[in-house]
Amino acid sequence: MAEKLKSVLKTPKLRLGVKAVALALALYFLPVWAAGILAAFLYFWPLTFSFSFVLSFIAFLLSAGSFFIANFSPFSGWPGVIASVIVAALFVLLLGVKNVIFIRRAPFFFVFLGVIIFASLYGFFAGIIHLPILALVVFFFCRDALASFTPASEPTEWRNGWQTGRTGLLAVVSSLLVTELAWAVFYLNLSVIWATVSVFISFSGAFYMIVEYLRGKLYQTNAPFIAVLAVIASFVILLFTAF
User: Fold this and answer.
1) Using one digit for the tens of pLDDT, what is the confidence trace for 149-178?
2) Under 8 Å CB-to-CB from 183, ≥6 apart: which residues?
3) The whole model's pTM is what?
4) Cβ neighbours for 133, distance < 8 A, ≥ 6 positions apart
5) Which of 22, 192, 224, 230 is packed most tightly, with the most Cβ within 10 A?
6) Other Cβ atoms within 10 Å of 185 Cβ, number
């Protein structure tokens, strides 16, 4: 039995599955703080590439932990089972990107980023996540995304200075955009889901434009058009749901 377990743990994809099951069980049966400690152990084992996405891992803990503290307790029935499985699946996405399990890492990471930021926005409008936590979550994810999946991550001499600083600045801008817009929309007293969708659409369009800008393809793609279309769609949603 021990030999079989060792052989399973030597296979990267199977090891991901074991970690997902372990975290899902911990979220359902243990307090949130204990599941968080286990998640940290699973994330940093093995240590290789762990610090490349450590900010995203912290943001993941902040967002998921806030939801579980507010809504679930150990042995919380089928809702707890479903939530545990979803969080474990997202954790697998992050580990797969971090450990280079996925060949095309960028699409998986951007899906992960989108789901967590959407959930964090929903949590803010539902009164689960405070605005400073939302700001940190957005900044951490955008910082890792821009640093890892744009030309700023390439090890050239000039990019180690100005270009790397530019990604940090643009991550701050993205965070401020989301938090300021979310703060303004919050006082419109919209339904939680429509408020979330409107802010998320605006963020998605703006962030896509930032990514293409750093890749040097801003005017070679339809990114500006998509960003403008996203903002228009967001304001249309706000207009029709506010009255």
Assistant:
1) 876 444 444 444 445 577 888 899 999 999
2) 131
3) 0.85
4) 62, 63, 66, 120
5) 230
6) 23
